[in-house]
Amino acid sequence: MSAEGNTVLVVDDERQIVRALRVLLRDAGFETVAAGGVEEALDLAALHGPDAAIVDLMLPDGTGVDVCRGLREWSSLPILVLSAVDEEDQKVEALQAGADDYVTKPFGPRELLARLQALLRRAAPAGEEPVIRVGDLDVDVAGHRVSRDGEEIHLTKIEFGLLRTLVRHRGKLLTHQALLLEVWGAAYAEDTATLRTHIANLRRKIEPPDGSGAPRLIRTETGVGYRLVA
User: Fold this and answer.
1) Cα distance between residue 78 and residue 145, in whole Å
2) What is the secondary structure of 14-29 as a DSSP string?
3) Residue 170: helix, strand or coil by DSSP?
């Protein structure tokens, strides 16, 4: 997706970070508007109607979670959270408050841009693809079938529900709770042990048989959730 004409709201009170993000985004073709706190961020979002937001978790008048909640009251714009390594609980809270993804500080510029552009592509309106190609898999969302090189892979109803959810949000980090709510319902919202068991079974069936044993399609974000690599 072209960045031309897209405006990104940058929310961070560290001037060096804001300066670096402005340069990075400008060179990639984005326009930027910057805020140093929660209230200013929400005011500028309402004024400028940005296409996406990059939000630090630690702010002088609140947190990035507050920004996510405020934006989600009226907007579905993609939100990318910047997080320090040791703030796992806050990252989960931000994702549950409406953030779409996170990048850990210190961040790699190429990774941040790739994550942002992926979020913008997914936010673009489009009808759901009947068959989605993921790696060497063909996932027939409507027909509830998965195949590799024309050979069907048999999944249970729960396994297919997990895969379908991950495919629909491919590239995006989904929290444990989001997956449990989507596939099992509210009664299982805290049952992470069940989720891990089914993810392990799904991996055994769909991961490419390359002999390494390392998951390539479904990545674990420790303590947070899972991401299907697009």
Assistant:
1) 30
2) -HHHHHHHHHHHHHTT
3) coil
Answer yes or no: is 11 within a domain: yes
Q: Tokens standing for 24? A: 């990075």
Q: Tens digits of per-residue pLDDT, 165-175?
A: 998 888 888 99
Same domain, 53 and 145: no
Q: What is the pLDDT of residue 214?
A: 61
Domain boundary among 123, 140, 163: 123
DSSP 15-68: HHHHHHHHHHHHHTT-EEEEESSHHHHHHHHHHH--SEEEEESEETTEEHHHHH
Tokens 């989960």 correspond to 92
Residues 147 and 193 in one domain: yes
How many domains is the chain partitioned into structurally?
2
Domain range for 69 is 7-123
Alpha carbons 196 and 37: distance in angstroms, whole number: 37
Q: Is the peptide bond before 106 cis (omega within 30 degrees of 0)?
A: yes
User: Which residue, chain included where needed, has tokens 């008048």?
Assistant: 61
pTM exceeding 0.70: no
- Residue that terminates a domain, selected from 71, 103, 123: 123
| Cβ atoms < 10 Å from Cβ of 135 | 14
Where do runs of H (alpha helix) occur along the chain? Answer: 15-27, 38-48, 64-72, 88-96, 109-123, 157-168, 176-183, 192-206
Output the domain CATH number for residue 195. 1.10.10.10
**Residue 105 and residue 42 share a domain:** yes
The pLDDT assigned to 1 comes to 47
